[in-house]
Amino acid sequence: MIFFYILMSWLPNVRDNFIGELLGKLVEPFLSPFRRIIPPLFGTLDISPIIALIVLQFAEGGVHSIVGLLFR
Question: Name one Pfam family in it (predicted).
Fold first, then answer.
């Protein structure tokens, strides 16, 4: 969802339709803490979604490890 939300930011007026608004409501609560911490580079380049995806990958790996330990 985050990836599609990022792609939608490159297309004009796509975030204004139903799907864009729905994705915004689902993704923005997760991205907003990262946007508060990480300022945009060069004034316009927002790398916070990339950092959010990396954090999500680490969380997924942690959950897989925990589940693997519990159900051996």
Answer: CCB3_YggT
Q: Which residues on neighbouring strands pair with residue 18, listed in sequence order?
A: none
Name beta bridge partners: 63. none
Q: Is pLDDT at 22 greater than 90 in this prediction?
A: yes
The structural domains of the chain, with segments of one domain joined by +, span 2-70
User: Average pLDDT in the 19-33 region?
Assistant: 93
Report yes or no: 68 and 17 within 8 Å, Cβ to Cβ.
Answer: no
The reply to whether the predicted model has a pTM over 0.90 is no
Inter-residue contact 23 to 8 (CB < 8 Å): yes
CA distance 20 to 10: 12
- pLDDT tier, 43 (very low <50, low <70, confident <90, very high otherwise): confident
Alpha-carbon distance 24 to 69, whole Å? 35
